[in-house]
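Shape is hard to put into words, and the shape of a protein is harder than most. The fold becomes a row of whole numbers, each drawn from a learned catalogue of backbone shapes. The outcome of that step, for a single protein, is printed below.
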Amino acid sequence: MDDLDALATMETACFPPQEAADIERLAARIEQYPDHFWLMINTDEDAIAETFPAQVEEGTLMSFINGPVTSDRDLHDGMFSDPQVHEESGDWQVILGVDTAPVYQHHGCAGYLMRRVILDSALNGRKGVVLTCKERLKDYYAQFGFFDEGLSSSCHGNAAWYQMRLVLPGHQQDDECKQMIEQHPEAFAATRESLAAAIGETTAYIDDEER
């Protein structure tokens, strides 16, 4: 819970009030699925005071992604309010929020974290990743391997959302996954590219830490 205030500050900066998760909901999510929060932190002490007022122990919070794992194949509004939907053994990693501090937007922060989510989901044997987004962001998520499934049943924050799905390798024997891969070959190719990039980024990070 040490990072809770910073997460709440970031959420408020990134989403309108009717869409942002308040501090109580964020706390409940952290309690229920702490391993499904991915954070990017700026550890440059000289830059902290001049960037964004969302401080964690290691530095300044730049970006974070969060969401539960579930066997439900579709994202629904209950997932935003009830963290009990989380099933650690579930098939689908759901993303409820992709947050980047305004000062760090358009610098690849969210993309780096998204590739990390995709890699972690693959390593944990998930079938894939599901999120919803506004229409203007569909192309952004497509670059990672997500494909558009049309308007979502979710009306979170009284907005129109499109459900985006990414199917991970290793599940070609599953009839549903096989069909989606065959229907969206370009998306599946982009998924493989995202995984390769994430592995490269992780390896580079480990090499830097060992120097």
Remarks:
- The longest strand covers residues 59-66.
- The mean pLDDT is 92.
